[in-house]
């Protein structure tokens, strides 16, 4: 079985969704943000070859879920966006269930939610959502409802854009890299924590943060995956 086949349609649509509404780590490389998703970035985030990603993108295009731009960008169609948003919302509700009901850690929940996504019907998801009291955010800080997420994007910035001396509250964590996600939790870099940027050297890929528990050194990749709200 090829890598493209191991990653299903919904995983590709979820990845394209994150890149279609770019913030921080989810911005297409070298674009400065705000541009349609490129196939190479989809491959990078899924950990597959560009050829494998291209194979699946052709399938998505044939099924009317994506269309290709002038520079071979993968752009969600209306149908593709609706399905992608449903996949993202389901994932976040399952994460809430795993942490709030079954006692999994937030880092574990992300991995298991990926594995369980196809196991729940839409009716099951809505019942879980009701039983949980309609949670507003997943354990990693992302709004459950994608419309709320997209509206909130304008209020947030990746930590990598902050200067020394700025204060902020961590709101969301990038999820696509499981190792990085676990590192955030190990370091106490979690939603709701207030931080101060003690030193910012983006050209050297290094940031020093002050947390209630002490200082933390953060590399540029991690800084791009921490989404914060500045405190005046």
Question: If you had to describe this structure to a student in words, what would you say it looks like?
Answer:
This protein is α+β, with helices and mostly antiparallel strands. It has 3 domains: 3-76, Arc Repressor Mutant, subunit A; 81-153, Winged helix-like DNA-binding domain superfamily/Winged helix DNA-binding domain (Arc Repressor Mutant, subunit A, Orthogonal Bundle); 156-231, Roll (SH3 type barrels). It is 44% helix and 19% strand. It is built from 10 helices and 9 strands. A hairpin with a 4-residue loop joins strand 2 and strand 3 (73-76). Helix 2 crosses helix 5 and helix 5 packs across helix 6 (106-116). The N and C termini lie far apart (53 Å).
Strand tally is 9
CATH topology of the largest domain, anyone? SH3 type barrels
Given the C-alpha coordinates, what overall shape results?
globular
Number of helices: 10
Q: Considering the protein shown, what is the CATH homologous superfamily of the largest domain? A: Ferrous iron transport protein A (FeoA)
Q: What's the short story on this structure?
A:
About 45% of the residues lie in helices and about 20% in strands. The protein contains 10 helices and 9 strands.
Layout of secondary structure:
Elements (H helix, E strand, L loop, with lengths): L2 H4 L2 H12 L16 E2 H8 L3 H13 L3 E3 L4 E4 L1 H23 L5 H11 L5 H10 L14 H7 L4 E2 L8 E7 L4 H9 L7 E8 L4 E6 L2 E6 H5 L1 E6 L1
Antiparallel strand pairs: 1-3, 2-3, 4-9, 5-6, 5-9, 6-7, 7-8
Helix pairs in contact: 2-3, 2-5, 3-4, 5-6, 5-7, 6-9
């Amino acid at each position: 079985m090829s890598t493209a086949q191991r990653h299903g349609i919904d995983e590709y649509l979820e990845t394209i969704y994150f890149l279609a509404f770019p913030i921080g780590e989810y911005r297409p490389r070298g674009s400065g943000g705000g541009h349609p998703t490129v196939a190479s970035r989809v491959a990078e985030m899924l950990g597959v070859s560009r050829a494998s990603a291209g194979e699946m993108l052709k399938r998505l295009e044939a099924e009317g879920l994506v269309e290709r731009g002038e520079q071979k960008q993968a752009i969600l169609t209306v149908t593709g966006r609706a399905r992608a948003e449903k996949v993202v919302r389901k994932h976040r509700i399952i994460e809430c269930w795993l942490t709030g009901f079954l006692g999994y850690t937030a880092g574990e929940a992300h991995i298991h939610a990926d594995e369980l996504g196809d196991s729940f019907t839409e009716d099951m998801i809505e019942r879980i959502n009701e039983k949980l009291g309609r949670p507003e955010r997943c354990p990693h800080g992302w709004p459950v409802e994608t419309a709320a997420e997209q509206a909130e994007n304008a209020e947030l910035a990746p930590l990598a854009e902050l200067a020394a001396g700025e204060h902020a509250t961590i709101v969301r964590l990038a999820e696509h890299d499981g190792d990085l996600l676990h590192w955030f939790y190990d370091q106490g870099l979690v939603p709701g924590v207030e931080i101060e940027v003690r030193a910012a050297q983006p050209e050297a890929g290094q940031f020093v943060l002050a947390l209630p528990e002490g200082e933390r050194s953060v590399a540029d990749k991690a800084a791009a995956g921490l989404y914060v709200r500045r405190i005046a």
